[in-house]
């Protein structure tokens, strides 16, 4: 019995020791986890928002700028491709017009070529006819020359006789005068025949020469037309080849443009994604202790961020901020600490006047964030001045394009307007 009691007591002591050891291990493990968690959160850029750890994206402005540069480069290349396509299209139009003109000229040349060759054929026929006439004239000349020779021989015989010999050979005085008259008539007739023969021969030669020259001229014209026709056909072939090459180039550039545009669009999506992640990261940072506050004591909104019917122009326009209802002279406060980077006050101390934002200033809060305060009556701060969140920086007015006293308030991230209600408490 005593042994059993001792055994039970021993087991109870062991259980107590074991429980204490387990509690110690749990405490030690919790401490280690907390330490490791703190180290991990610090290393990974984790902040606690409402007691809940939030992992910040590892996105920097440099990542966004790099994506934008790649997108802009792709879009610039796409624009260059588009410009090249436009130039090639103009060249193609010019070539098509030139080809059309060449084809028309070629058709006209062909028609003229046929006409010239028809004229050449007629000229060659005239040439052959002239040569035939020339040959006939030559043959006639030979015959006439034989007659002429015979005549000259007889005339020579008569002309070598003296008048006494003719008188002695005559039967009577009447016969003598008759013989002398005959000799004179024969001489005159022969001279006239020679003159006519020479004229006919000269005319035949002239006609033959004219026909020959005309035929040669027509041949030269036809040869020139043939050369022009060959040149036109060569130009047409060259232009058609150039047009084919140009069409191929246009197809290639159009494909490049499509690919670059698609790539630029994908980069647009990447830029948007990176910007959203980065903005979320910045919002988490601001919500961790650097959040914006209302820039006026009044928080009543008279016009929201986004498209609206403009109260002055009556057209649909984008409203880049929110309008907070307030009275003339109400205090304008810095929504967050930062450096004043811009001040313009063309209507200092005036409730109204001017266009646009009127009197306004811009404060840079770092990390790409800035705020704008518009339509003020007075601006108290100057460029380069550091202001704290909640510090008075001006008075509410209605300067610029405004219909009544209010504060136009904008939030910008890297220059792009955001909805201020995403940042205000």
Ordered list of secondary-structure elements with their pairings:
Blueprint: H1 2-44, E1 46-49, E2 52-55, H2 61-159, H3 163-169, H4 173-287, E3 301-303, E4 306-309, E5 316-319, E6 322-325, E7 331-333, E8 338-344, E9 352-353, E10 359-366, E11 369-379, E12 386-387, E13 392-396, E14 398-399, E15 406-413, E16 416-418
Parallel strand pairs: 9-14
Antiparallel strand pairs: 1-2, 3-6, 4-5, 6-15, 7-13, 8-10, 8-12, 10-11, 11-13, 11-15, 15-16
Helix pairs in contact: 2-4, 3-4
Question: How would you describe what is shown here?
Answer:
The protein is 62% helix and 17% strand. The chain is α+β, with helices and mostly antiparallel strands and 425 residues long. The strands form four sheets. Strands 3, 6, 7, 8, 10, 11, 12, 13, 15 and 16 form a ten-stranded antiparallel beta sheet that branches. It has a two-stranded antiparallel sheet with strand order 1-2. It has a two-stranded antiparallel ribbon with strand order 4-5. A hairpin with a 2-residue loop joins β15 (406-413) and β16. α2 (61-159) packs antiparallel against α4 (173-287). The protein is rod-shaped, with a radius of gyration of 59 Å.
